[in-house]
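Sanity check record (used in CI):
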Amino acid sequence: MSCRGKDNTENCVCDILRQIVEAQNDIVDDDCCDISCEQSIQDLMGDTTSPTNLDTVPVLLYCDCKPFKGFGVRNDQNRTVLGSFYFRVKSVDDDCCAVLELLRDPACTRQNPSDPTEQKTANLRTTGICINVDLKCFCHVTCLPATDAL
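Expected output for Spore coat protein Z:
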């Protein structure tokens, strides 16, 4: 089966992230394949026995077969630069451009992890740091289990 979405667009990463946005905004109940991203979306929508306070499907994106790390500046006295491999999808437009919010574990003291495995994912929280990306640049998306990151 092709990774193309139900709308048969040219970018499967864009399609999956659009589905996540729809689920996070509680717009539609998607009836797609039972893959990890689909399961996370179903959990978010309350279609399974997962907790009901879920609000985010954390994603890990890949560019050129390498995990993508986003950077942003924290609005603190030092204007601290933070990096993260994990994101909350805020929006996806018709051109497959997305706004992603960096997710971090508040207990993590490392500001710039060099590998996704250096970040704990059990307590990911939103940071308020958003970046804009062109989803056509990505070749793969991994969805983590739905969580309460807000």
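Residues 12-143 form one domain. If this sentence no longer matches the regenerated tokens, the check is flagged for review.
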